[in-house]
Design brief:
There is one protein chain. This protein has 467 residues and is of the alpha/beta class. It folds into two domains: 247 residues, Enolpyruvate transferase domain (UDP-n-acetylglucosamine1-carboxyvinyl-transferase, Chain, Alpha-beta prism), CATH 3.65.10.10; 205 residues, UDP-n-acetylglucosamine1-carboxyvinyl-transferase, Chain (Alpha-beta prism), CATH 3.65.10.10. It contains 14 helices and 25 strands. α2 runs parallel beside α3, α6 runs parallel beside α8 and α11 runs parallel beside α13. It is globular and about 70 Å long. The protein starts with 5 loop residues before the first strand and ends in a 9-residue tail after the last strand. The relative contact order is 0.15.
Length: 467
Amino acid sequence: MPLPDLIEIVPLNKPVRAEITVPGSKSITNRALILAALASGETTLQGALWSEDTQVMVECLQELGFMVNVAADPEEPCNRTITVYGKGGEVPRGGTEQQPLELFVGNAGTAARFLSAFVCLGEGAYRLHGVPRMHERPQASLFKALRELGYRVVSPNDKLPALIHGEGPKPGKCRVSIEESSQFASALLLGTKAGGWTVEVTGENSEESPYVAMTEKLIKAFPAEGGGFQIEPDASSGSYFLAAAELLPPYEYMEWSHGLGTEIPTTQLDALKVAFWPSSGWQIDEEFLDVLHFGMIAREKLRQIGEKRTRRKERLRLEENRAISRKRHLGDSMMTAIVLAPFLEQSVQFTDLGRLRVQESERVVGLRTELTKCGAKVIEEGDTLTVFPSEMHGAEIETYDDHRMAMCFAVVGLKVPGIKIRNPSCVKKTFPNFFQKLAAVPPHGLGATILDPRTGQALGVGELFAD
């Protein structure tokens, strides 16, 4: 059965001991699929994310003429083992200007940007198009760079849909700005070896952009002659469960206190964990833990040996006069940090949020609107949101067909009664079994109850998959 179009998250009022697996990184999976198609011979991607965005990329590669085999992953239901048979830098021929080869990219920014550069390496005409929101998202800087390299890109407004004329490898130089999206640079960098392109990255934070750095590191590590490649878990997806750990009651266990002759309850800080947390340095959202524990948002140490009972202190604290930047500190998990902020003791500023405005939805306005609806005090000034400590209450959350809005506010629902999520199936974009992870029995889930608010009935785990 499909997910209802409205669900309600019932708060968890008891501690949870669990170790959650999350699917593979979307950003790494879609980059790896392009690199595998450009590689010589057979490449097997293990732990690859299988969601709407990565399925779109696989389907486009198959439509282009690449052989791509997909097999189940026994460790994680929303991962796959994907085998790509590369053509050594060659891209199969497209169509004609009158009948171009059609590629549907949905609302996947990585597919839209990476494939725009990728098809230039082929011959003939390719038409890229997606859902209406994808047709609103920026492409101009990428198209400008491709034209500098000598390729013909036809688009009346420099957005999708676009007709791209592939002319094969054309060695040359181009400049690309990443002010609106680092994916523009990544799209070109993925094709530099096959195309003979030299890419100069410009714009805000051009040298430090974590997603450009991810692409460069991935290119160096990838088996260009074919072979195996392991996709690491998605840190952005893991952030929701780390956030849940901050909001749930702490887990206490009895520990024998040597010398005192008594057992005392001790709080365990890591009772709720994300399995195989990445440590490669490729994903900026690996830093979510540092931001929570050691940076702007920090937990007080809870363990107090020698007391008869461990008192629970406030778990979240903000260091004075600090702000969290979308450029310097976090990537997509910035949204997770923002929805945690009303539960802090002090107000916090979230800065440099401009890119959030041009992603799957206008996320800055969306976050402000929905948090305010729940009782939070939020001030929007330019590309900064200031969130104040607030008494939160239930509300019906509009997700704007944005997977991250749905997952962020579901986490809020684990703490705040009455949080209802509209269109929860939008999580299929990157995390189709997210709600199953919330509801599954520990240690593989949180054991949360999720209701169909129209009937008041609890939904079974089998009813919570988004497809």
